[in-house]
Design goal:
single chain, alpha+beta, nine-stranded mixed sheet, 7 helices, 34% helix
Amino acid sequence: MAADKDQAATQKKKAARTSVRKVKDKWKAKQWYNIRAPPMYNGVPIAETLADETDKLLGRVAEATLQDLTGDFSKMHIKVRFKVAAVRGNECATKFSGHELTSDYIRRLTRRKHSKIDAVVDVTTKDGSQMRVKPMAVTERRAQTTQEQQIRRITQTIIQQAAAERDHPAFIRDVVNGELGQVIFREARKIYPLKRVEIRKSEVVAEPQAYFETVDLFAAPAPEPAPEAAPAAEGEAPATEAPAEPAAEEEQL
């Protein structure tokens, strides 16, 4: 009996050493990979991740704030999600997956005696991308139900028209940067005074595969060419900018 117990204990120790050895070997096989934003955000590095096989990287989601991508401090409340779509060497290219406003920012906007008007709008962009957009309008004072319904209809119409007129990179930029929210604000405030309009969340439901088959996700957009100065005529000195004249003071009413 004692010999059997010793043999069983020996086998357990061997199994434990083998399992530890396997874990260590698997960890050593992993490599670090850089995750970069899509070309629409100039391929900015946003995260690093570990993996032992490149296939395991596909579909991973990385998150960054719009401040990290653009350097604009006023955009730190906007979180953008990207999904790994391709791997080349130690670099991972991504595509836009969705965005969301931080919860503390939304809480600051929504106060008592104000109306918060939410909507869910499913749209299809010009190039066939299907997205779900969730806008939010906050009124200056509490609004009536009919006014909320009118503002919600205006919001849905503007978002659907904007999606139909733009391809998905342009539509995503307008949604995330707040341009679309400003358009909704200007139209909806005609119904009732508004405090703020935001696209609080968006997500990609289906993507246009034809677009990703023709676009290199690793390529950053080419810089815009600088405007060329007009050549000076023979015998004339090159033109220089005239000093700006001070603006006239506005008359007080």
